[in-house]
Every structure is written in structure tokens, then in C-alpha cells.
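Hi R.,

As promised on Friday, here is the backbone we talked about, encoded as C-alpha cells. Could you run it through your design pipeline when you get a chance and send me back a sequence?
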């Protein structure tokens, strides 16, 4: 692919390396971040968007590795990352910071403690907004100016106008269709480049298990990869909820299986988390078949 955009040399080098997934240095950077992409396009597109100063929205099922993907991008760009975990309780203080009493030269003064948004903007670093569609619709418009070309915000607690320093980037993640989530309004969604993050499968999943768990037995890793694929297919067929196919939960089961029997590890890490007995029984039966 011919790159006609005048990107910094460091980013061009990163993009070129991303096209050579077998490059040893690149693989080490990926593993340090903890996310192994299912294909290089996923990584190349995310790097391209961030290097152009665009916000990216990672969309995918729970446990697919969206947070790890964000951490890997932060690592590749050598950028620290401040995080916001959205919920219905998210408010302006959770985003911007808060005032508190402090002492200076023996006198009581009011001091402002910066939150993740102001810290990332002032530091010129990454901001990660997790489960952005869990926040109340009236909360997020506060940061609309942060997410568009202006890259500015008026701090409601100090009336200071903050303009993001160079290097500031926003990565958000979304789980669609979950209880408590709300659809993103068009004004907010249009401020992002959307990147669909699928479940890891096949060799990529096996490599993730080898590098991120205590399980190193090749046959056991193959069985867990097959088990994961069967769970994913069951999710696609509507037989299981997305929670059942969480890669995060699968890695927990792999770790436990080093000490306890694999079937019991699957019950503890995956099956018993599910709400419906029908789903728990499905997972237990699948584990019995394979292990």
C-alpha cells in the first residue's frame, strides 16, 4: 500500500513494520501490550487513524480483547494511557477532576485534582473510555469538544479552557446490546473511526494462550482453542450469551487448568458466571465432550 499521507517517520516505520507480522521486534511490542490481532489490517487501520489524530471506537463482544488492544496501541505509540470506566454514575468529576481542601504554607486552600480527561489532555497522552455506551446520555456531551477538531474543553470546576497538547488521542470501547447500555447518539458516534474487534480464534488464540497464561501443554492448548471456537459458534447461533465466549474468561480457565482438572477450571472461570442454568449446562456438556 502506497502511503501518500505525510506521517511522522516513527509512525511510518510502525505502519511498515505492522505489515510484516513476523518481524521479531514487532512481535515483542505486541506481546508487551498483550493483544495479538487476528489480522494485520486491524492494527494498521488503528495505527493510521490514531496517527492522524482521529478518535477510534473499538466495537466487539465482551472479552474479545478491546481493552488489551487499547493497551497494545498505547505501548506501540510509547504513550501512557489514562482510563475512564463508564457507568450510570459517571459524572463531570469522574471525567474532569474535583476540588479538595489542601494546606499550603500552613494555610488551608482549595486545590483542583485533575481527572483522566484533563490529565491526558495536559500530558498529551492517550485517553481510554471503556464501555462508553454505559454512561448517561447527558454526561458525554461535556467532552464533545475534546473529541472533535477543537480538542478543547472548558473545565466546569475552574472555568479554565484546556487545549490538548500534541500526542493526545482518544480510544473508546463499546459493548452493544448489554443491559444498561444506550445507543450512542449520532453526534458522538460521528466523532469516531469504528474498528470492529472480533473474537480471537485459531493460531492467534493459541499464541495468546501460550504467551499470556501458565498453560504450555500443546495438546491442552489445542483443546482449549477448539472449546473456544465451539463457544463462539454457539454465541453466533444464539445458544449462548456473549459472556460465555469471553477470551478473558478462557485465559482464566487455562491458568486454573494447570493445577485443577480442565473441566472444573471451565466451570469456575466460565460456566458459573452465566445467569441461565440452560447456558451453564451447555458449557458443562461441551467441556465433558472435549476434556
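Update: got your reply. Pasting your designed sequence below so it's all in one thread:
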Amino acid at each position: 500500500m502506497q502511503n501518500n499521507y505525510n506521517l511522522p517517520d516513527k509512525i511510518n516505520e510502525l505502519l511498515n513494520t505492522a505489515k510484516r507480522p513476523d518481524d521479531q521486534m514487532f512481535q515483542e511490542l505486541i506481546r508487551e501490550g498483550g493483544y495479538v490481532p487476528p489480522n494485520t489490517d486491524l492494527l494498521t487501520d488503528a495505527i493510521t487513524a490514531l496517527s492522524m489524530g482521529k478518535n477510534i471506537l473499538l466495537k466487539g463482544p465482551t472479552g474479545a480483547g478491546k481493552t488489551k488492544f487499547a493497551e497494545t496501541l498505547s505501548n506501540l505509540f510509547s504513550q501512557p494511557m489514562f482510563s475512564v470506566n463508564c457507568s450510570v454514575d459517571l459524572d463531570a468529576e469522574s471525567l474532569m477532576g474535583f476540588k479538595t481542601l489542601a494546606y499550603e504554607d500552613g494555610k488551608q486552600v482549595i486545590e483542583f485534582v485533575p481527572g483522566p480527561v484533563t490529565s491526558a489532555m495536559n500530558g498529551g497522552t492517550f485517553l481510554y473510555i471503556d464501555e462508553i455506551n454505559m454512561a448517561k446520555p447527558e454526561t458525554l456531551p461535556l467532552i464533545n469538544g475534546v473529541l472533535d477538531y477543537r480538542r478543547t474543553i472548558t473545565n466546569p470546576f475552574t472555568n479554565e479552557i484546556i487545549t490538548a497538547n500534541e500526542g493526545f488521542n482518544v480510544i473508546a470501547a463499546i459493548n452493544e446490546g448489554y443491559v444498561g447500555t444506550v445507543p450512542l447518539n449520532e453526534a458522538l458516534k460521528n466523532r469516531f473511526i469504528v474498528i470492529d474487534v472480533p473474537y480471537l480464534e485459531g493460531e492467534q488464540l493459541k499464541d495468546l494462550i501460550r504467551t499470556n497464561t501458565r498453560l504450555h501443554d500443546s495438546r491442552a492448548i489445542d483443546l482449549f482453542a477448539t472449546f473456544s471456537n465451539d463457544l463462539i459458534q454457539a454465541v453466533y447461533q444464539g445458544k449462548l450469551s456473549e459472556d460465555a465466549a469471553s477470551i478473558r474468561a478462557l485465559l482464566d480457565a487455562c491458568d486454573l487448568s494447570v493445577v485443577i482438572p480442565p473441566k472444573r477450571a471451565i466451570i469456575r472461570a466460565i460456566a458459573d458466571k452465566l445467569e441461565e442454568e440452560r447456558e451453564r449446562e451447555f458449557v458443562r456438556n461441551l467441556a465433558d465432550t472435549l476434556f
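One thing I noticed while checking it: The chain has two domains: 9-196, 202-290.

Thanks again,
M.
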